[in-house]
From TrEMBL:
GO terms for molecular function: heme binding; iron ion binding; monooxygenase activity; oxidoreductase activity, acting on paired donors, with incorporation or reduction of molecular oxygen. Belongs to the cytochrome P450 family. Its cofactor is heme. The keyword Nucleotide-binding does not apply. This is Cytochrome P450. InterPro entries: Cyt_P450 (IPR001128), Cyt_P450_E_grp-I (IPR002401), Cyt_P450_sf (IPR036396), Cytochrome_P450_monoxygenase (IPR050121). Keywords: Iron, Metal-binding, Monooxygenase, Oxidoreductase. The lineage of its organism: Eukaryota, Fungi, Dikarya, Ascomycota, Pezizomycotina. Pfam families: p450. It comes from the Eukaryota. It comes from Heterodermia speciosa. PANTHER family: CYTOCHROME P450, N-ACETYLTRYPTOPHAN 6-HYDROXYLASE IVOC-RELATED.
Length: 398
């Protein structure tokens, strides 16, 4: 019932109407890249991409955003609060009393106990205020089309439209919309910058498809690019945005599973929850081969990938952001490319050989970023988390 009220706003037709807004946000992102290029400052992709996805999802949910991309710090404290929430979430899943206890605490106390979670509690108050403002505009027959205008105009029972209930919905939509897409984008950009041969293939496709980066073709054209699609699919395979085992239930019928190795059949009774860990399936060597841990977009060429309706917005962001960035920027070798493991210095160099590494024009370069430390899943926090203390993927604009 609740999902039915939201589904129209995440349909492909609805998301395609957001293209102009999304491109404006991406243009702001590229403008910030140029500012960092002029100052020589290192960019934290983990932060700046969350500023982008936060601005996009808030605009769509509420009709306005905090313009985090325009802030000097990109509103980093908010993303820290999301990370703090996900650090607690696994424990709350197993201890059903923990969530209600934390939610019952006043904001002033939570700020003292955990400044990061305190920021999230303040945001909850802001979301409630925004929902109440939208409620008033809906009562005035305002035709603005946002997620919460739609929910409040829907046929949901009034008990499902209370401010408190919708605030929970806002928290889910915003936190998922901010973190998942930004996390996947960071990982994909890392792999492209770490392997100039892959990046050069993508750039060749983009240079042909987008002759003038100031006047790009519409999203359906970008979405149809085969190598860009392979780049995205391979990123989603290696770095799924969620580590939670999402259950599915066939309530009225038994399911029969046939083991592909020995042909044995297993009957799963109706009503049995079924789930799997995406990370394990996505890197299973029996499925993907001995190089299952390698980032190799070519494995997707010639295959048809099917997206889920609920992630149409995320797909559009992935396509538009990656095409926007890599149509403008080439790849340069990593900057500050050594780090110390104990007393031993380890040199990190991009793949692809000397010719592939030669930058052409404006470039992005990884800055002191190591896959095993800053990109790969190390901790399961419902979302993937890297090594504790990692600063994530960092780049310089040259």
């Amino acid at each position: 019932m609740r999902r039915a009220a939201l589904n129209p706003y995440f349909s492909k037709a609805s998301v395609n109407k957001l293209e102009i807004i999304n491109r404006e946000k991406i243009s702001t992102l590229l403008g910030r890249f140029e500012i960092h290029r002029a100052t020589g400052e290192v960019i934290s992709l983990s932060i700046i991409l969350r500023a982008l996805t936060s601005d996009i999802i808030n605009q769509y949910a509420f009709g306005s955003s905090d313009n985090n991309l325009d802030r000097d710090d990109y509103n980093a404290s908010f993303y820290e609060s999301i990370a703090a929430f996900f650090e607690v979430a696994p424990a709350a899943m197993h201890c059903s009393w923990l969530g209600p206890v934390l939610n019952s605490l006043p904001v002033s106390l939570m700020v003292k106990l955990s400044p990061a979670l305190g920021t999230l509690y303040r945001m909850r108050k802001l979301w409630e205020t925004q929902i109440d403002k939208i409620r008033i505009s809906v009562d005035r027959d305002d035709n603005e089309s946002t997620i919460f205008h739609g929910v409040l105009n829907s046929d949901l029972p009034e008990i499902e439209k209370t401010t408190e209930r919708l605030r929970h919905e806002a928290e889910l939509i915003v936190m998922a919309g901010v973190d998942t897409t930004a996390s996947t984008l960071s990982a994909i950009i890392y792999h492209l910058l770490a392997d100039p041969m892959i990046a050069s293939k993508l750039r060749a496709e983009l240079l042909t498809a987008i002759p003038d980066p100031t006047s790009p073709p519409r999203y359906p054209t970008i979405e149809a690019l085969p190598y860009l699609t392979a780049v995205i699919q391979e990123g989603l395979r290696l770095h799924p945005a969620g580590t939670l085992r999402l259950t599915r239930v066939a309530p009225l019928e038994d399911l029969v599973y046939t083991d592909p190795f020995d042909g044995k059949k297993w009957r799963i009774p109706a009503g049995t929850p079924i789930s799997m860990t995406a990370k394990l399936v996505h890197q299973k060597k029996d499925i993907w081969g001995e190089d299952s841990n390698d980032y190799r977009p070519e494995r997707w060429l010639g295959k048809e990938g099917k997206g889920l309706g609920s992630i149409n917005l995320a797909y559009q962001e992935l396509y538009l952001v990656l095409s926007g960035i890599f149509r403008v920027y080439d790849v340069a070798p990593m900057t500050h490319s050594s780090h110390h493991a104990g007393s031993q210095a380890i040199e990190i160099t991009p793949k692809g050989g000397d010719d592939a590494s030669k930058p052409k024009g404006k470039c992005l370069a990884l800055y002191d970023t190591i896959r095993q430390r800053d990109v790969d899943l190390v901790h399961d926090m419902i979302i993937p988390a890297a090594v504790k203390g990692s600063q994530g993927v960092r780049v310089m604009v040259l």
